[in-house]
Design a protein that fits this description.
Helix content is 77%, strand content 0%. By secondary structure, the protein is mainly α. The protein has one domain: MetI-like (MetI-like fold). The longest helix has 39 residues. The relative contact order is 0.12.
């Protein structure tokens, strides 16, 4: 009797995917479009303040006056820019470490999440400006008060994004870890934390501009240097153009720090852009 053997399926070849490369036009647009946006903004600013005179120069000086005030104070303003940048980065780093650790604790225990999440929400809802005088009284003038203000402003998005990322691990990956009999630590290290990193970076990108805001508020209240301190000083002396030069530097600093973080994300997580529809 002849035994029929099941037909064997032809071998499946692994699909090869070519690396995704951004076209040259995309790279040019990535740089050119932001510069075009800045040029349009400055042009509208000039038209509103100089040509049509819609806003009084006391409220918003023309861009040429702001540039002239900046030119006269370049070394001084750059020195204070460095101070504000240092406070922003240091406070952001502290917030990142503490926020991720708190997020890990909340994601690892439902009891802890239910106990402390309402308190975190309440703390985030308190206007931080009302806490500034209390920080000065408690911590005194200088970096401690400024860094605390930065932390209070930007740690909550980091905590929230960490908890969200760690509690939304893809079901197929979690099932794979169970099928391989992976330990809890192995599952966290190999699957849960890497899968949560894109969501964590969302919180970090939200927190970075908030860190700059916190540094400026802290310098308003407790600083002896920095762009926030200089803005307050210039405004008190009636030098509005110089004050706006400091404000523009705060904006530029925030933009550079934000895109530095975006670049670090792309360097650390190159697989995100290849496995998703991210641009």
């Amino acid at each position: 009797m002849t035994v029929l053997k099941p037909a064997q399926a032809p071998p499946v070849r692994a699909a090869t995917t070519a690396p995704v490369r951004r076209p040259a036009g995309g790279r040019i647009a990535a740089v050119g479009l932001p510069l075009l946006g800045v040029a349009v903004t400055v042009t509208v600013w000039w038209l509103v303040t100089s040509v049509f005179d819609l806003v009084h120069s006391v409220v918003l000086p023309p861009p040429q006056d702001v540039y002239a005030a900046f030119s006269l104070r370049v070394p001084r303003l750059l020195e204070h820019t460095l101070a504000t940048t240092t406070s922003t980065v240091a406070g952001f780093a502290i917030s990142t470490v503490v926020g991720v650790l708190i997020g890990l604790a909340l994601a690892g225990s439902q009891v802890a999440e239910r106990m402390f999440s309402p308190l975190l929400v309440a703390l985030n809802a308190v206007p931080k400006i009302v806490l500034a005088p209390l920080l000065v009284v408690t911590l005194g003038w200088g970096q401690q008060s400024i860094l605390t203000m930065v932390f209070l402003l930007c740690f909550f998005p980091i905590v929230l994004s960490t908890v969200t990322g760690l509690t939304s691990t893809p079901a197929d990956l979690a099932e794979l870890a169970r099928s391989l009999d992976a330990s809890r630590w192995q599952t966290f290290r190999k699957i849960r934390f890497p899968a949560a990193l894109p969501q964590i970076f969302v919180g970090l990108k939200v927190a970075m501009p908030l860190a700059a805001i916190g540094a400026v508020i802290g310098e308003f209240q407790a600083g002896e240097e920095g762009l926030g301190y200089m803005t307050l000083q210039f405004s008190g002396m009636g030098e509005n153009s110089a004050a706006w030069a400091a404000i523009v530097l705060i904006g530029l600093m925030s933009i550079l720090l934000y895109f530095a973080l975006v670049g670090f994300e792309r360097l650390l997580l190159p697989w995100v852009r290849e496995t998703t529809s991210a641009r």
